[in-house]
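Task card 7
Instruction: Convert sequence to structure tokens.
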Amino acid sequence: MDGLGLNPPRGVHPVRRVGLTGGIGSGKSTVARYLVDAGALLVDTDAIARALTLPGGAALPALATEFGAGIIGPDGAMDRERMRALAFSEPEAKRRLERILHPMIGQMALQQADAGAGQVVVFDVPLLGESSPWRQRVDRLLVVDCSDDTQVARVMRRSGWSEDAVRRVIAHQTPRAARRAIGDAVIVNEGLSLAQLAAQVRALWALWNNQPH
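Output:
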């Protein structure tokens, strides 16, 4: 089934900060683009995380101390493939990485949001779950959802990853049911054209901003 689902509102008005989340291949980045088109300021936590781990990034000294100098690649950035392999093979390594990155990401994200005076701010947070501090930082949470098989097909098509690689990533993300349960709205991006997806985003934006649509 496709469509827009709304959970009972949390009574926050007006909506000034929106959390946006969804699994890999769900179409979350496309929804983010449509929200920006509607007038939102996008704060992309994935982009912040990448900036922190690029050559000269603020997180590199702490990463080298925690994981050893070998975690820094020849180009001076964090070796993402090595870190991904380590995180998949050792769950504690993922938690150690998050303890370093998450406070830095949160601080930079809020700084970026403060620059958007008067705008609705959308925080793109891929792994936002019930226990995430982001749940309390936003007025509404929008979840972009689709089936695991659709996620796999989309990621394989765009990245060339194997099916097994994509499914391993999905297995390490927040389960679909858990994401849907905490969302104030859920866009089921299954079988939708881009025009239909854009229309659902516009309708939700209008609803949350008390605008005609």
